[in-house]
Structures are given as C-alpha cells and as structure tokens.
C-alpha cells in the first residue's frame, strides 16, 4: 500500500503544480505571448500526466480509497500558494488541510 500512496502523492502533486502554472498563465496578457503559451502548456502537461497516473491507480485500488485521497491536492496547493505565490495562509485554511490529512489517514488504515 505504501508504494500506491507514493503514486497518489505524485499525481496529486502534479495536479497542484498544473494549477500553479494555470495561475501563472492567468496573470499574462492574452495575446501571442510566449510566457502564456509556456504556462498553459506546462499546466496542461502536469494535469494530463496526473490524470493518467490517477487512472492507472484506479485500475489497482478501490475508487472509495483513491478518489477521497485526491483531496490531498489541497495540501500541495496550500504549500505552493504560500511558497511560490506568496499568498497568506489563514488558520482556517490550515485547519482545513489538517482535517484532510487526518481524513486521509483514516481512509488508508
């Protein structure tokens, strides 16, 4: 089960990184802009790679385990928001992520 959890951690991380690149794209002017293209391409590649891994894991583990664990994407999103986008993280957001982690632990035990 540990190896599957690492794959789940990887595809949720890829989803969060894809979202990060889409956020970076949202700050670009919509025109023939190379940065916009790069951010959209990177975001799409990370999202697609994460989706393929998700589908692969679903072939081997129950949907009732895999799908709820995709909420771990919020953990990565919080970290990315704080460290890469300099967003403020409230106690309420932090508490939500802690509850997600606790819920995930209950799912895999």
From TrEMBL:
Q: Which residues are in coiled coils?
A: none
Membrane-traversing stretches? 6-22, 34-57, 63-84
**Localisation per UniProt entry:** Endomembrane system
Show the Gene3D superfamilies listed in the entry.
1.10.3730.20
Q: Which residues form the signal peptide?
A: none
What positions does the domain EamA occupy?
Answer: 8-108
In the record, the note on similarity to other proteins reads: Belongs to the EamA transporter family.
What is this protein's name?
EamA-like transporter family protein
Q: What is the source species?
A: Sediminibacillus albus
Q: Lineage in the entry? A: Bacteria, Bacillati, Bacillota, Bacilli, Bacillales
């Amino acid at each position: 089960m540990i190896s599957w959890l690492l794959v789940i951690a990887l595809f949720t991380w890829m989803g969060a990184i894809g979202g990060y690149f889409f956020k970076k794209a949202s700050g670009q002017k919509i025109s023939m802009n190379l940065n916009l293209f790069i951010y959209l391409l990177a975001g799409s590649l990370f999202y697609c790679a994460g989706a393929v891994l998700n589908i692969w894991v679903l072939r081997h583990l129950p949907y009732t385990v895999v799908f709820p664990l995709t909420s771990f994407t919020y953990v990565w999103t919080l970290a990315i928001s704080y460290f890469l986008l300099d967003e403020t993280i409230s106690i309420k957001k932090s508490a939500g992520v802690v509850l997600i982690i606790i819920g995930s632990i209950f799912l895999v035990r």
